[in-house]
Amino acid sequence: xxxxxxxxxxxxxxxxxxxxxxxxxxxAAGWVSVRVGDSRQRVRVEPTLRPELTAAFADVTLPDYxxxxxxxxKDVRNGSVSLVKGSRARFAATASxxxxxxxxxxxxxxxxxxxxxxxxxxxxxPISVEFRWQDAAGLTGKEPFTLAxxxxxxxxxxxxxxxMPRQKVLLDSEVIGFKVAARDDFGVKxxxxxxxxxxPNAVKTPAKGETVLAAxxxxxxxxxxxxxxxxxxxxxxxxxxxxxxxxxDYAPGRPRVYSPTYTFYVLSAEQxxxxxxxxxxxxxRQSLEVRDREMQLHxxxxxxxxxxxxxxxxxxxxxxVENQATAERANGRRLSALVGSGEELVRQAARNPEIGVGHxxxxxxxxxxxxxxxxxxxxxxxxxxxxxxxxxxxxxAASNPTGNRAPSAGQVRAGGAGAPGDPKKNASPTAVPQVxxxxxxxxxxxxKSGSQPPKKGGSNPRLxxxxxxxxxxxxPAKPPPSTAPEMVDExxxxxxxxx
Length: 499
Known about the structure:
Layout: E1 2-4, E2 14-15, E3 18-19, E4 30-36, E5 39-45, E6 53-61, E7 72-75, E8 80-84, E9 87-95, E10 99-104, E11 107-108, E12 115-117, E13 121-123, E14 127-135, E15 145-152, E16 158-162, E17 167-171, E18 175-183, E19 188-197, E20 208-215, E21 222-230, E22 240-249, E23 257-258, E24 262-267, H1 269-305, H2 309-312, H3 315-350, H4 357-389, H5 394-399, E25 408-413, H6 423-426, E26 434-440, E27 467-471, H7 484-498
Parallel strand pairs: 8-15, 17-24, 25-26, 26-27
Antiparallel strand pairs: 1-4, 2-3, 4-5, 6-7, 6-9, 9-12, 9-13, 10-11, 10-14, 14-15, 16-18, 18-21, 19-20, 19-22, 22-23, 22-24
Helix pairs in contact: 1-3, 1-7, 3-4, 4-7
């Protein structure tokens, strides 16, 4: 029988000359009293946890071509690590207390205190490293620690360009500024610019060359560069050229990484002046098409205005007016796009000293006028036509000029009141007779005037008590809403002005 402290005794029988006691788990040290027959003895027991890993790391030496001497330490406690192919590494694990023995991948490795280190390995693909350990008390880890190592390729650099137009016509003296952002996992070697002529029928040999924009370094994982392109400074004769930005890293034999191709049409001052003149002529033809379309819309608007009020009130006529408004907006957007392209042409021409300043000023003034037409006046015409399409019918307004009013009795002393109407003539079928007493607070009583028709009743009229209402001066009466013919008239006048 064995008993731990004050706990319940545990009995065991003799088997093969041994007594084996299954004691409950313990966390505190204590004494075990053992009795075998008449023999008694006390044994000191100190419960001990298994030795567990508290740290795991890898000392990595990168491939020589990367130019980074020394080793790098990586934490691998999560059980996995990714290393560039060609690296050499040692892996180590540290336990919670000193170790007596350890094995790495089944091979015995003498521990250094609480740390056991693997032999150096070269990483060229996926491998695994297994650690097992035992402390001085003979306790081992609950389960081995397995480290998964992945060998990955050295990634090529990445490249991004800003402010570099994909296609542009340039003067040979013009300078384009741009920015380059290059990134690499183990250092950017250099960033540069390449160009090559694309005209197979050129009299001279097509241009071809390159230049370095900036040099990087083994420790430069990110390289941000500001560059410029000037055909004259690079010795490029007027011709179309393809330009690319490139980046290199330190991987041996790896080709350059290129940006998208940018096409520049390099022209001399004389060639550029001819090109600008041709583009302006093309732009002028397009603007004439917009003008012709506006004149067609104007003629259609006049045809609609020539219709009688009854004909203009028909649904098909209203739809035609609405279609005219849509077409007017579309033509305004087309003119706005033309103004934008015209402004770009003027900016192009301003860079060329061969083009006269007076000519450019004339074009700039004309573009300002067209910009106002497309941004303000054409949308205004479209708005008027849109309102005409939804304006109240003229025949409806003429058939009910006064509205439905209920008969009333009483005294109206408000100045400016009209003569009392005929109750039978003005009453609606649902109107309720009223007794009113209305007096103005600002005008003298009008003893000659009769009763004043009250406001229209709701859909559920009620017969109420006599009411006295004091009427103030009030503001001016609102004009009646414009009808469709009037709105079309205004649109035609505005359109005629812009034409």
